[in-house]
Design a protein that fits this description.
Elements lengths: L27 H4 L13 E6 L9 H8 L7 H12 L7 H18 L6 E5 L6 H10 L4 E6 L6 H18 L6 E4 L7 H20 L7 E8 L3 H6 L5 H17 L4 E7 L14 H6 L6 E5 L8 H4 L1 H12 L3 E4 L7 H16 L41
Parallel strand pairs: 1-2, 1-3, 3-4, 5-6, 5-7, 7-8
């Protein structure tokens, strides 16, 4: 078994395709490529897949090298981003959050009669996904259901995880021995949405307690910006912004239909010549003429990490304060019981083979597909790379 355990694996050069299969390294139930797998499927473990983050000052630059691998960015430029992490002692909270989520999900699965172990691996920092896949195989687990810690359809939030799993399987030499399916994008599962509804309600109540009328508030739903071309190609066509907008509409309909809101973006990192989704959260705050308060809702994020702590809690809050606005940032789902139960429900629907018509979804898109469609979330700058859990390419 060739592997680079203990470090980020190299990009895969190919994928394993069983005879008669259309989906690489999939369980037999998903290998034919149905949009929704509506037959009961046995899994040995859940593969919780995260972005990863540094856990000390010495980790910051090596971590950022992993994030930007292949782009030829010198350490001097990486240090411009590193100060966000160094401001917090070089520690991102994302790994601790995933440790908490792993434990909470294992407990909830057991409560629901699905006592599956949850194995955790990261894209960009230890424990890496190849470590997690190797651990699974060593423990005798060869049928894995993967949960990426991102709810929406886009290259970085879905397709890239599928490529990561292909990298890990090839690195461990297990592409023909370990099957990896994935849960559907869960942006509109009620358990993911509920913490945002509660957060908006609580923030509005806090503003009113401070003497700010609802009519003087604006809710900004914040998510990571991506290149506009990636957004156009996401989920088969424009899914990334559309999914966020539909969830924001639902949240406001439940929490405060009379309060103004908009969808904004943050954390762009591309060259100025490359169009990315707009408006930027800070620009949007500066344009809130006639408002007295702003509520920041991290709709694109499962848990607190640097894009939340720095880009929202630090930069966006500073922008709002300088504009003389009352400001409150609502919580991410984290380990909210409704969110943990939602993840357990995503596992249950695949184990049960639950028909799509009976799956939980609160927006008009309905439950998204289990098996990604051909060309889904293409990244035209990088080209198609080997990926699992979807139809080629």
């Amino acid at each position: 078994m060739r592997s680079t355990l203990g470090m980020k694996p190299p990009a895969a050069t190919g994928v394993h395709l069983s005879p008669g299969a259309a989906v690489p390294s999939a369980t037999p139930e998903a290998a034919g490529g149905p949009e929704h797998v509506e037959v009961p499927t046995r899994y040995d473990a859940v593969l919780l897949s995260g972005f990863g983050g540094p856990e000390g000052q010495d980790d910051v630059i090596p971590f950022l090298r992993n994030v930007t691998r292949g782009r030829g960015i010198p350490d001097e430029r990486l240090e411009e981003v590193a100060h966000h992490y160094r401001h917090f002692g070089g520690v991102s909270p994302i790994n601790d959050h995933n440790r908490e989520l792993r434990s909470a999900l294992e407990e909830r699965l057991a409560q629901r009669g699905l006592p599956l172990p949850v194995i955790w691996g990261n894209r960009n920092w230890m424990p890496y996904l190849n470590d997690a896949v190797a651990e699974a195989f060593q423990r005798g687990f060869t049928r894995l259901l993967a949960i990426p810690t991102s709810a929406y359809s886009s290259y970085s939030s879905c397709r890239q995880y599928r490529e990561d799993w292909a990298d890990a399987l090839e690195d461990c030499g297990l592409a023909d021995q370990v099957a990896i399916d994935k849960v559907r994008p869960f942006f509109n599962h009620p358990g993911f949405v509920q913490p945002f509804i509660e957060g908006v309600r609580d923030a509005i109540a806090a503003a009113e307690a401070d003497g700010i009328d609802r009519g003087a508030l604006e809710v900004l739903f914040c998510t990571h910006s991506i290149p506009t071309l990636d957004a156009e190609l996401s989920g088969g066509g424009g899914a990334y912004p559309a999914q966020h907008r539909s969830v924001a509409e639902y949240v406001m309909a439940q929490a405060a239909p009379e309060v103004a809101w908009q969808l904004v973006y943050q954390s762009r990192s591309g060259p100025p010549s490359q169009p990315w989704l707009e408006p930027d959260v800070n620009d949007a705050i500066q344009e809130l003429h006639g408002r007295r308060g702003v509520i920041l809702v991290p709709l694109g994020f499962v848990s607190d990490h640097m894009e939340v702590m720095w880009d929202l809690d630090t930069e966006a809050v500073e922008t709002a304060t300088e504009a003389g606005l009352w400001v409150r940032r609502t919580p991410t789902p984290g380990v909210h019981p409704a969110f943990v139960d939602a993840l357990a429900d995503l596992v249950a629907e695949r184990v049960e083979g639950r028909p799509a018509a009976r799956r939980c979804a609160v927006t008009a898109e309905g439950p998204w597909v289990d098996v990604c469609r051909p060309g889904c979330c293409e990244n035209r700058r990088l080209g198609f790379k080997p990926a699992v859990a979807g139809l080629a390419p």
